[in-house]
Design goal:
With about 160 residues, the protein is mainly alpha-helical. It contains five helices and no strands. It is elongated. Bound molecules: zinc ion and fe (iii) ion (2 copies).
Length: about 160
């Protein structure tokens, strides 16, 4: 698909986001299973549910603007998920692996925050108000997920210091 105007760019962004969320729906259960801390496990499981909603939301936005959201692989998310898989394979269950998992999950959230932030700006520029609103909702959720991970990481640092 040639990218000739901002609408094309926006449509490509939707495809990318759809693929990214789809990959996460598969990756998050593996990350949750590898976590030791019940707080981290729960946070990853909760974000899986949120991610399933986000996937649907991208689909809805695509429908509303007449764009197909399938047929593209987000290579960025593919790489980030691969990094997370590597950590799980190399690590032994425990607090250290949890720290690595939080790092991998936060890289993922930051990537999504960047991608959704751009998509919201482009939707606004294109005058697609509903699309911008929907994508902003996901952007807020990703921000919250990232903050939650920071809190869990800080709690874990204290735990390790006390051990
Ligand atoms: Zn792409
Ligand atoms: Fe997401
Ligand atoms: Fe996310």
């Amino acid at each position: 698909m040639p990218l000739t105007d901002l609408k094309d760019v926006f449509e490509h962004e939707l495809k990318d986001l759809y693929s990214a969320e789809q990959q996460l729906v598969e990756a998050l259960p593996k990350m949750a299973a590898a976590a030791t801390s019940s707080k981290l496990k729960k946070a990853l499981e909760m974000h899986l549910q949120v991610t399933q909603e986000q996937l649907k939301r991208v689909e809805e936005v695509g429908k509303a603007v007449g764009a197909t959201v399938t047929g593209h692989t987000c290579e960025g998310m593919k790489g980030l998920v691969k990094e997370g898989d590597g950590v799980i394979k190399e690590g032994k269950k425990g607090l250290a692996l949890d720290a690595a998992l939080i790092g991998a999950a936060q890289r993922i959230e930051h990537y999504e925050i960047a991608a959704y932030g751009t998509a919201v700006a482009h939707a606004e520029e294109l005058g697609l108000k509903d699309a911008a609103k929907k994508l902003q909702k996901t952007l807020d959720e990703e921000g919250k997920a990232n903050e939650e991970l920071t809190k869990i990481a800080e709690g874990a640092v204290n735990e390790r210091a006390a051990a």
